[in-house]
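Dear colleague,

Following up on Tuesday's group meeting, I ran the structure prediction for the two-component complex that the binding team flagged. I've pasted the input sequences exactly as they went in, so you can double-check that nothing got truncated or mislabelled along the way. The structure tokens for the whole assembly follow below. Feel free to forward this to whoever is handling the docking comparison.

Inputs:
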Amino acid sequence: MKPNHGHMSLYGFNRCTMSLLVCSISLLSGCKPPLPDTVRSGLVYCSEGSPETFNPQLVTSGTTIDAISQQLYDRLLEIDADTGELVPALAKSWQVSADGKTYLFTLRDDVQFHQTEYFSPSRPLQAEDVVFTFNRIMQRNHPFHRQGGGNYPFFQSVDWADLVDSVTADTPHQVRFKLSRPDSSFLSNIATDFAAILSAEYGALLVKSGQLSRMDSHPIGTGPFRFKEYQKDVLIRYYRHRNYWREPAKPEQLVFDIVPNNARRMAKLFTHECDVVAFPRVAELGLISKRPDVDVQESTSMNIGFWAFNTVKPPFDQVKVRQALAHAINRDAILQAVYFGHATAADSVLPPTSWAYNPNLAVQQYDPVKAKALLTEAGYPDGFSMDIWAMPVQRLYNPNALKMAELMQADLAQIGVRASIVSYEWNSFRRKLGSYEHDSVLIGWSADNADPDNFFRPLLSCSAALTGSNRANWCDETFDNLISQALLTADQKQRRSYYMAAQQYLAEQMPLLSIAHSQRFQAISSDIKGVRINPYGGIALANAVKDVK
Amino acid sequence: MILYLLRRMFLLAFVFIALSIFAFSLGYLFPGEPLQNFTGLRHISAEQLPLLQQEYRMEQGYIAQYLAYLGRIFSGNWALSFSSQQPLLQEMQMLMPATLELASYALLISFFIGIPIGIIAAIKPEGTLSKLISAVAVAGYSIPVFWWALLLIMLFSLALGWLPTAGRIGVLYEINHVTGFMLPDILLSGTAHRQEAMLNALRHLLLPTIVLATFPTTVMIRFTRDAMLDVWEQSYIKTARAKGLNRGQVLYRHALRNALLPVIRQIGLQFSTLITLAMITEVIFSWPGIGRWLIDSIYQRNYPAIQAGLLVISTLVITVNMLTEILHTVFNPLARKR
């Protein structure tokens, strides 16, 4: 018999009853070992979808970033969740040259990569790894450049290849970035979830064994958790990284339980099969907050839900048509019925909390008569037929795209526009959007960093139109000039004036109709502490503590 | 008997050929490039194209292509899944045991509960108990499986919090895939906490098994009852009774054995319904089996997976049908003569 048997009550009621149950069933007396650490200190996060890859460089989808970025990887810099300021991470310090074109980062020397069944690192993080990571994005002849399709949507949208001339290792612990022009958003971009640092040593090993694709399916990073297994549409399993350079992660095991169905995710929260639940349905927040065993966390996030028109397809290539459609939509009804009041109406793509927000924009009025008049001017007095693509998953910026589409369908019918609603499974949906098969789409964007540029370039620039992440397929020279000008200047006042003008221009051109900025919610079992919502990106779970009573 | 078996095998082969022709033609009937549907490759590069076209005999006639398809089926060289880009055969081997495990427990329950209750109901057909059983059986037979499942989840998981709502085992238990059947795998796994894992797996198993067993159990009750009543009227029973055998002896030696013959046949007929119900059950309980996978594949427009899934499931249903037919014949000499 174990000496600690007498202290059973220390482990708490649940474990005690559980043990009793097992013991009485197996009729083995007093033999019960304590619950394994992996189960007791394991954390289950119920997510809304499967990740597309395990390399954050290759995606922009929030589902994937939530699942991989903060858990497996670290970045050179990080964004402080409270202040929005840049703080050191893998780079302990950095210097900018006087002309703003050279950045020198000094790396920590105590950062270990993951030790897993498929890779054992022989050395800590070095400048070589940073060079490897960013060259993969920039150099076409890099052995890994073409892996996963050779698309780096975030970096392409910020024009990375054009901006960064070279990344070199000065010493094993110093990395030099040379830019072709000053860019005031460079550091913010380095700190996003997408700029995760990969292992050059692991890369070399994979090149040797000819298994290049494993780089993105069997990840090696420096983050608080290491990869164990992934079953598509079922779960992702991580274990604690024992040699993490910061304080080791609190949970021994972290499982992402993939539950796309909202109701089922809530059910799993109530039965405590999930400790943390992503994106509880806004309609159910009242119900959740009534339960004593579950808490709701809330944070105003940097995001925008919008309705983007495929501006290349007629009739959406006409500004008047786009404006007419915008005027036809009753946004107040949508805010009530879809967001349940947990969102603010959006006048611009930028949320009002951003320093570059333009408060002088004309508010888009719900005015079917004006909409009808605009349509007639554009040459469609009898309206037309169109598709509204509604994304099949619930995201913060749009908790229920199908319902929104239905409301809009009714609004549009009033001005003679016959809308049909289209939806696919999420992966297919994004792929088809990327090849611009849609007429219009209800989707949105969550910011990765606090820089206003993050709302403009990844969403509406010409380079984003080329990579397929510009949902409006909109490439406009005037707009592109404005946002490029804003990047070239470091003076915040001047940058703001460019962004003001850009927002004004967007309001006139209407490539997309901004609908709402929503608050982010997360439902969490009340015995979990140390999890909070990060307004600038993916969720971090390393500090989650399960309070075992 | 051998002739009979040969006849059955011939029929099976014929049905399989018809099924495989159908599955093959889906490659053309589905949207998209037939070559993509057959290979499961999302992107076929210019270098790959001629090689694949040759391997899949795309330049030759349909018959040559079909034969190549058949060859690939038998050599295990199946297409890739569109969504995961993994070989379908491997994927299905991972999922099939989960479905079979669930279905076989449900079938076992339906035997061990359905048959005795059916007999009880037949003993006094006009009694209150018998009428009650019949009423419950009719209710169980007609209840929609998804509604029943949701009711049970609402009661046992959400209201009482006793049972989990989804999956085969708590996600924090890491059980390696050896046989694919959860309970043996837990026993085979080296973890020191097998008992807890086992208990956890059983709690996960309980609701889906009850839901899935409901329909076959009620069918079993009704059939056993009817067959018993039918047999009870036969003259050899009266003879046996007249010879002085007591009720129990007659029931066991003469009535039950004869009554169970049509019940065996019923298993085969119910199997296809069971698989259909298993799909619904799997979707509701997020059971990672072949049914949920097939339904997800339909949502994802995963054509190679739909094609292969249909072939596998229909072949399975037909094979089980055939096996029970043969079993029925083995037990019933009369059927052989027909």
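Residues 1-33 of chain A have pLDDT under 50 and may be disordered.

Cheers,
M.
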